[in-house]
Design a protein that fits this description.
It contains 20 helices and twelve strands. It is α+β, with helices and mostly antiparallel strands. Strands 1-2-8-5-3 form a five-stranded mixed sheet. It is globular. Keywords: Heme, Iron, Metal-binding, Monooxygenase, Oxidoreductase.
Amino acid sequence: MDPQALLFSLFTPEGREDPHTPLEELRRVAPVYYDKDLDTFFLTRYSDCHSVLTDPNSAVPDLTWCEAELPDWREHPAADFFYSSMLRSNQPDHGRLRKLVSGAFTARRVAALQQAVEEITDRLLDDLADTVAHHGHADFQNVVGYPLPVAVIGELIGVPAADQAQFWQLGQDAGRLLEPVRSAEDWQRADAAVKQLRDYFRELTAARSRQPADDLVSALLPMARGEGQLTEKELTDTLLLVFVAGFETTTSLLALTVHALLGHPEQRARLVDDPDLVPNAVEESLRWDTPVRMTERITTAPMSVGGVPVPAGSNLTTVLTAANRDPEQFPDPHRFDVSRTGSKVLSFSAGPHYCLGAALARLEGTVAIRKLLARFPSLRLAGTPRRRESLSLRAYESLPITTSER
């Protein structure tokens, strides 16, 4: 088939439901495909994606990129936030910001959060049981999928529980910036969300300056107020980024894993019988149904990708969904197998921009799935799931489930 037709089929409802069939064919006919209309090289092999993500000559689109591609970016608070944040900054700013925040995501700090994750999960599963008891079914996303990551990242940062519910919608609105093509409505929603979130985190840092606590806000505050390692704006935007990024991907991971297990009852039964396999199952879910479908890079020098010359200044899109099902890297890639081991997935990217919160997301997924199946071994779908309309994120808006036998 024509490579462009395969690529564009991803934007259809059928392609959103099953992106793997066209991506497999695209990898076969044009694994490094340059689309003239989009002015982008699309990469679908694991080796090529990993190479680009770890290459020092590939950069993320940042404020310098905005000057050329989004000349009106100053009119959009969301663009100002997004393209100057740690997520979209390059060296030296990226390394400086990442080093300051990384202490919150050390193995010791993540391990210290396990008790909080366990307690929050137990409370939410109580809510799930109550909802099913009253209505016969529940939306997993509303009861567990969103509240769990929001509560955990709120615990880490220092966002009071009473304030956390408002971030569900604000996070989704700000997340519209992850889309490769944004409409006027996307910008409007993202701008409004970023403005509101910035106001909130400014107020929170002011409160912590008066009364410090054991949280990320209090830890970073001296770096902005006294040590000069962060500007006040960088502090606010870093907290905003950590909060939104800390729950969006994990929310997707939880629902995608639950849905994969419900669709593979024999694999779910293995986890019920052997809970020690749950970490493997979370990793397999990250590979089999990747939450972040693609990510962008720009070449800062000429390079060769999969034997294809790529000039400096080129746009590259690493299609993580395709890379994680590359048969050269993963034997029998379309088989969902909770006992699969040794997978090195690209679901959290790779290289300098590898996700700081990956270990925390894996912990949340492992705790939630283990407890969910232990408490509700007869879990099943109670309706048709509804996917989020997104090109960049593989996520569910709604996942109706019930905990009873038929």
